[in-house]
Design goal:
Radius of gyration: 17 Å
Number of strands: 4
Distance between the termini: 28 Å
Order of helices and strands: HEEHHEHHEHHHH
Largest sheet: 2 strands, antiparallel
Oligomer: single chain
Strand order of the largest sheet: 1-2
Shape: globular
Helix content: 55-70%
Strand content: 5-15%
Number of helices: 9
């Protein structure tokens, strides 16, 4: 990670924490008052093949004995009413400002994967995770909605796992590697603006063609 990218991460994360703390407090109260239980969901993710860290999010699901793998249609019934709003707006990821400040992730980069997928595809993720993982990124902008459609149709954990491994991991990795070739501070800023506007940059479309 370049010095300029790290400085941007620190300054912007501190600024957003200062501005958005009332929003974060309101979300925490909404979760606690409507659903009880924990406010945060803290889970292991990978920022390198041998580099785990704990990722923070606002909790959007009810707890379950089995909670392995990515979220698909098999987990849809566990999403709370507040959680649906948070996921739709991506406000569930607001606590990741803490991860950015710590240096676990950046604002822009590939989404940090679960350990099980890194162990399944070590060579692939060895290349993808040469870029610091991020809250948003080229693959998030270009493929996130398609991934949601694919996984929401899955009725069992086994089906979700099969679809994610076969149809999502290779496509996201391909787009993440396009980002790795293009990355730079100006491109990161473009992707951050595109995330706010919810528009896929032109270069992402060309990369998928």
């Amino acid at each position: 990670m370049s010095v300029s990218k790290r400085v941007l991460d620190i300054v912007l994360s501190l600024l957003l924490m200062l501005v958005l703390w009332p929003v974060a407090l309101a979300i925490a109260l909404a979760i606690k008052l409507t659903d009880g239980g924990a406010v945060f969901y803290i889970a292991e993710r990978m920022r390198g093949v041998e580099q785990p860290f704990m990722l923070w999010k606002f909790r959007t699901m009810r707890d379950a004995a089995r909670n392995a793998g990515v979220s698909g249609g098999d987990k849809a019934a566990r999403i709370t009413p507040v959680g649906r709003v948070l996921r739709r707006s991506r406000l569930d990821e607001l606590p990741q400002l803490w991860n950015i400040l710590r240096g676990d992730i950046s604002f822009v980069g590939p989404r940090p994967p679960l350990r099980c997928y890194v162990e399944l595809f070590p060579a692939l993720y060895g290349e993808v995770l040469k870029a610091r993982p991020g809250v948003t990124g080229l693959a998030t902008l270009a493929f996130h909605r398609r991934e949601e459609v694919l996984l929401s149709a899955c009725a069992t954990p086994e089906e979700t796992e099969a679809v994610y491994v076969r149809r999502c991991v290779p496509v996201k990795a391909k787009i993440d590697l396009i980002y790795a070739r293009e990355r730079g501070l100006c491109y990161d800023l473009q992707l951050m603006v595109a995330t706010v506007l919810r528009r896929v940059p032109l270069r992402a479309r060309r990369g998928r063609s």
